[in-house]
Design a protein that fits this description.
Elements: H1 3-17, H2 44-50, H3 53-59, E1 79-83, E2 89-92, E3 96-97, E4 105-106, E5 115-120, E6 127-132, E7 138-143, E8 153-156, E9 161-165
Antiparallel strand pairs: 1-2, 1-9, 3-4, 4-8, 5-6, 6-7, 7-8
Bound molecules: zinc ion.
Length: about 170
């Protein structure tokens, strides 16, 4: 096999493997690459300086806060929810609902530039990971069992959010 056909074969394998369920879970591919480039960037040391330990664990390490621990779970005032890492606006109280899960839940992001999504293969069933579109900070996960009109449920860690009440 010459070099050219070897390379073509390797490319074919990579393409095919992307469609094999579980390929990513086996560590063949790092889907997180799609999260590597964001407008707001800091070094790990700068993030540690800026964030509390709990915020760092969720935003930068994709941790999950314990259910029913965030005061924002019960926040019912009108206002906007921003990324606690970079202050980018992510969600609006207009789209918040009580999902009963113990995490702040929204049926859509504030606007189309608020959040990005990536596949998360940590569990057996792949989930869709949700992150801040500005700094890439992990926010939570997205599910298809939310209320109308979208039927979506953005299940978000309260520690990854900061709430700004609407000024009256
Ligand atoms: Zn952010």
């Amino acid at each position: 096999m010459d070099r050219r056909s070897f390379l073509a074969g390797a490319a074919g394998f990579i393409l095919a493997a992307q469609f094999i369920p579980g390929a990513s879970a086996m560590g063949l591919f790092n889907k997180k690459d799609e999260k590597s480039d964001f407008p707001f960037k800091l070094t790990e040391a700068e993030w540690r300086e800026r964030l509390s330990e709990q915020q760092f664990n969720v935003l930068r390490k994709e941790g999950t806060e314990r259910a029913f621990t965030s005061p924002l779970n019960d926040e019912k005032r009108s206002g906007s929810f921003h990324c606690s890492g970079c202050d980018h606006m992510l969600f609006s109280s207009d789209h918040k609902f009580d999902s009963g899960t113990g995490w702040p839940s929204f049926w859509q992001p504030a606007n189309e530039k608020s959040v990005g999504e990536s596949k998360d293969y940590k569990m057996i069933v792949p989930r869709t990971e949700v992150h801040c579109a500005n700094c890439g900070g992990h926010q939570g996960h997205f599910f298809n069992d939310g209320p109308q009109p979208t039927g979506l449920r953005y299940c978000i860690n309260g520690v990854a959010l900061s709430f700004k009440p609407t000024e009256t």
